[in-house]
Amino acid sequence: MINDNRSKYFVFVPFCLLSQAYQAQGLVKYEWISSIKPFVQLLLDNNINIIQMPCAESSFNNNLIRKPMGLSKYNNKEFNDHCEKLATQVADEIKNILSSNYKVIAILGIEQSPSCCVNYIYTNHGNENRKGLFIEKLYEKTKHYNIPIIGINRKYINKSLNQLKNIIESIIEF
């Protein structure tokens, strides 16, 4: 019999959480490292598999170099179709993980992102309480799994970090 000590817990993260080059130009600042490091460290310390979701914005034009654009610039048929395709791919991966008797304990998003925000985004009309275009489609495809989706606010990380800690503590037996 094979002794299988692999972790059976997974968290899906936005591509830019681990690869800053995938953010639009001018968005990466020094504090980005200090704001994402606790999330990555928490996952590593608890032996949780980290899966990067595709970056809808950079893959849309196949280019890492892009200017920051708001929701109004992305909310069109072509980009929505692109997000739908990517969300289907991620949802299929989640289904595969779950059917293998593993657990997806959370999906992380980045607040203010037109693609990956979970709770709020700044628009031309001020802050709106809504999901980003990619996360919205992913949520619709995975809501029946009841996987928590947590939005990381880079300026105020403690709330989302505590949400993730609570999920880990409630699911993983220590």
If you had to describe this structure to a student in words, what would you say it looks like?
The chain is an alpha/beta fold. It has one domain (about 10-170): Rossmann fold (3-Layer(aba) Sandwich), CATH 3.40.50. The protein has helices at about 15-20, 30-45, 55-60, 70-75, 75-100, 135-140, 160-170, and strands at about 10-15, 50, 105-110, 120-125, 125-130, 150. The chain has a 4-stranded parallel beta sheet with strand order 2-1-3-6, sandwiched between helices. Strands 4-5 form a two-stranded antiparallel sheet. The longest helix is centred in the middle third of the chain and has 23 residues, at about 75-100. The two termini are about 25 Å apart.
List keywords for this structure.
174 residues, globular, Rossmann fold, alpha/beta, two-stranded antiparallel sheet, 7 helices
